[in-house]
Amino acid sequence: MALQQAAWMDVTFHVQTFGCQMNKHDSERVVGMLESLGCQAVGTIEEADVVVFMTCCVREAADVRLIGQVQTMKNVPLRKGSPVSKRIIAIGGCIGQRDGDGLFKSLPHLDVVFGTNNLASLPGLLEDVIEHGGRRAETLEESKAFPTELPSVREHAWAAWLPITIGCNNFCTYCIVPYVRGREKSRSLEEIAAEAKSYVDAGVKEITLLGQNVNSYGRDLYGKPRFADVLEAVDASGVERLRFATSHPKDLTDQVIAKFGTLRSLMPALHLPAQSGSDEILAAMHRNYTVEHYRGLIDKLRSVCPDIALSTDIIVGFPGETEEDFEGTYRLVDEIGYSQVFTFIYSKREGTPAARMVDTTPREVIQRRFDSLVEVVQKRAFEANQRDLDATVDVLVEGVSKRDSNLLSGKSPKNQTVHAPIPDGVSLESIIGTIVPVHIDEARTWYLRGTLL
Ligand code: SAH
Ligand code: SF4
Ligand code: F3S
């Protein structure tokens, strides 16, 4: 029998999220499901009867950190008056999917494991262990449905993530994601459009379309709608700001590029992971494009939208990367002048093809390459921000600066963080979630500072 509604109402929970936006979005659904049962969300592990970890295994560091964190939880006492006899710990997300009930061996006090396809099972699994004790794991390979029918509590009222595909078919040789998120599945255009419309009706200002490779949207659907059609449909919802992530360079079409010049709501910012500036390494990564093709895309993007803010992901130290390969990467990053670059040191993931490749580059050499890349990234990001000095930009206000609560913090169309003093007589509540004009007085590497007009 199900736990009584009254009993659920006494249960507190906390969700801790790692990894990408897909996981963050899944966490919103976990919060939505547990709240709709009557459980109360709390801000800390100490206050929580149930702790859910939404995990990431894209690089090794995340794995190690999670195990450590779950282990230390043994020493955190349960709150006074808790309705459960022992704190319930659940691991979901990509580590849950990858390791399944194997996690019980290394973490004896773990109670529940659920996979990326099994979000909907979480309440039942929790209920089972609360009532009967023991441990439960569920990690099905394929989900029965797109997890979109589940209730969801959005982190911010003014911004929404909208998944258009789940899974990935690309199998880049270094990457674990296709193994833990399954094959690519697209949602119908009608469903996406309806969800966008419902967000706009609820006051959402910014929609970010999500997928591991949004550009391959629709290949599995009848009539093969394309990603450019999705952009049009979501723009038609009347949303003020539209963004998307992530784009694979091999599938970025001219039709999508053209939208940066024509579509009202599409923001002038694009994350286009290059991964490497060497054709040999790109081939070994199974990326299916060349550096020349990538540069060609950037040229086209800049011809339709000259001030577009570009960001990318780079992996340093892929097996077999030579000094010359790295120089190609350095040159690409230096020449393109990205607003932001997420730089990663290659991390071996068991089960991927790259894990079997010979890797002889010394750690110090990789670290030196990484450090020199970070230096040029910062230099170029600083320069990119100078273009907005003395400009007036529209800022979607998200809250206050972490370091100074007298400064509002928000995002420009190019996705830059913008800070500005909150003028006397203006309350944060009155402007949060709205778009306000800010004159930029100062441009730093990672943020702009200005005056609210
Ligand atoms: N689907 C997206 C994001 C994938 S994960 C895409 O294709 O761009 C985000 C980033 O993590 C990747 O772009 C890649 O740069 C990095 N990454 C993935 N696997 C990695 C690994 N084994 N080692 C280091 N970085 C990795
Ligand atoms: Fe991983 Fe490549 Fe798929 Fe991105 S496109 S999730 S890097 S396999
Ligand atoms: Fe990490 Fe899974 Fe996303 S491995 S990057 S949380 S898809």
Give a structural overview.
The chain has 453 residues and is of the alpha/beta class. It has three domains: 3-138, Rossmann fold (3-Layer(aba) Sandwich), CATH 3.40.50.280; 153-386, pyruvate-formate lyase- activating enzyme; 392-452, OB fold (Dihydrolipoamide Acetyltransferase, E2P). It has 15 helices and 19 strands. It has helices at 5-9, 21-37, 60-72, 93-99, 103-106, 122-132, 177-181, 189-201, 227-235, 254-262, 279-284, 291-304, 323-336, 363-386, 428-431, and strands at residues 12-17, 40-41, 50-55, 88-92, 112-114, 136-138, 159-163, 165-166, 185-186, 206-210, 241-245, 269-271, 309-316, 340-345, 392-400, 407-411, 417-421, 435-443, 447-452. Strands 2-1-3-4-5-6 form a six-stranded parallel sheet, sandwiched between helices. A five-stranded mixed barrel has the order 15-16-17-19-18. Helix 8 packs parallel to helix 9, helix 10 (254-262) runs parallel beside helix 12 (291-304) and helix 13 runs parallel beside helix 14 (363-386). The radius of gyration is 23 Å and the shape is globular. Residues 19-20, 22-23, 56-58, 93-94, 176-177, 180-181 line the site of FE3-S4 cluster. Residues 58-59, 174-175, 177, 212-213, 246, 248, 273, 275, 313, 315, 344, 346-347, 349 line the site of S-adenosyl-L-homocysteine.
